[in-house]
């Protein structure tokens, strides 16, 4: 069968031959054996319900083997024979072009050039899944290929529940991932219920089909680094020869070296997985690979002397680098970490003192001992970072739960009040007050044609819109606009695309709507050859409630609430989103965050023009309103400015309280 026929077939009518895993690809770490005998039977029973009964006897033995060998039933036998990547939208069978756009995005998330563990359907973060198993993928693609604009597909943690009658104004797909009853949302619950095949960790943009490869985080990392260097007083030419030391080159963390090159510093990024480091090098996201610590020291000293802009991937453990740089008195200007510490004991963090292979074996076979190694490693890492910050290093938590897990390990990372961390989250110090509170966040788009010329044209249109807005923008957002004009001007030269022809740009509600409208008009006029798919990272102004990251600069005590994310996804769904998603977990870990996202297909129609205006406006201003109510002065400025421009927007503003009044109260 050709590609379209295979999509339409869904689960094949004849049992396919058993498949072996591709040893050339990176595979997910073996998950812990957490199920009882009765629960293992239930897991197999759950998996078999996707298939006709005549196959059950053969598949039961196979699924038991997967469960015992890997800790999860992936159904490798049902991996499709065709290559998975983002094709031109016309390659997909469909009855509505909107469904074809979603199929394109799903395949982009699972493209081996993008996905961290593609055969386990994991896009990034070690366990950020698009689907739990290959049967879910096959059924979902079949449903999308046959659905109409009068139907909506429900996805329950990867499981396609089915097509329901709806309306053309409704989302085509509604996605939920990991939405647990609160008392059953511990990391141990995730291990159990995922092994049972009834829930999954969708990360942020993996299980919502909106990941665009490491480019998606390059921009945010570049913006963060620019402003971190500004805090140190030497952004611009003075970044040359200055060191940014960090860890992680796997999924989204793979963007760090590229961002460092854009900012113009020396990036030293440690990665314990040789495959991950080599993949980034081959993709051109790392300048040099080094696997010897002495060689790294010599190379860094030379780079400092020559004031180079260079990215160095050290294949080894970052703890060794922090400690050795301290011993050699090598000055680190900026420090952070992007290992997947939301998942510290199942492949998200590899402890010092163990090789990559040894660590994988221990985490699967002796998990209790592995946990001790991780916690001791975190304590060593924090101790060394503390020594560097005394010397002047600016260290920030990149929202990966690094400081949270360090604190749980007993590391010295708490401030004197015993409540806060001694180092800020990058959202607290940088992205919150400088971007999110003003409404700037990671707006992104994908050219569904897969045509480079379409992407070039969208870059040009986005740049023109930003330049037009900047002419009359207030002083408060001039820097943000200029940073993004610089970004989009150099986007093609920086070779950011991996997978789909996608782009990301930090823009506010005004910018997003005007850029999207320009795209829609160009599609209608035939200047763009195919629809454009809009989206954003969930890591944005109002999509995510995450007390240690996205909402870490909310200081009214409400940062542990999740009303904003829920309102966001519900509000987007009836204002015109093509698909919406809401997840438990993402970035900082399961049970630590609720995040929502959307996708919107621009097809050049009047309906698309109306939807983009309504939805993009709400998607941003919902979050600004919440941040304003928390008394964030930048958000107060932004929402008052928006109300002055929009007659129908009426937001409750806080009355500010004099702290002297409170200090004078006799409170027991």
Q: Can you summarize the main beta sheet?
A: 9 strands, mixed
Uncertain parts = none
Helix- and strand-based class? alpha/beta
Number of helices: 22
For the secondary structure, the number of strands is: 17
Query: N-to-C terminal Cα separation, in Å?
Result: 76 Å
The shape is globular
Helix content: 40-55%
Average pLDDT for all residues: 94
Evaluate the radius of gyration: 24 Å
* Beta-strand content estimate: 5-15%
Question: Mind explaining what this structure looks like?
Answer:
With 668 residues, the protein is α/β, with parallel strands linked by helices. It has helices spanning 3-9, 37-48, 56-70, 97-110, 134-146, 187-195, 215-232, 256-263, 274-282, 293-306, 318-327, 356-365, 367-390, 402-409, 426-434, 452-472, 478-490, 509-524, 563-573, 606-629, 633-645, 659-663, and strands spanning 122-124, 128-129, 151-156, 159-165, 173-177, 243-247, 266-271, 288-290, 310-315, 334-335, 394-395, 441-447, 502-507, 532-536, 544-545, 579-584, 594-602. The strands form 3 sheets. Strands 3, 4, 5, 12, 13, 14, 15, 16 and 17 form a 9-stranded mixed sheet that branches. Strands 8-9-7-6-10-11 form a 6-stranded parallel sheet. Helix 2 crosses helix 3, helix 19 (563-573) packs antiparallel against helix 20 (606-629) and helix 20 runs antiparallel to helix 21 (633-645). The chain is globular and about 70 Å long. The N and C termini lie far apart (76 Å).
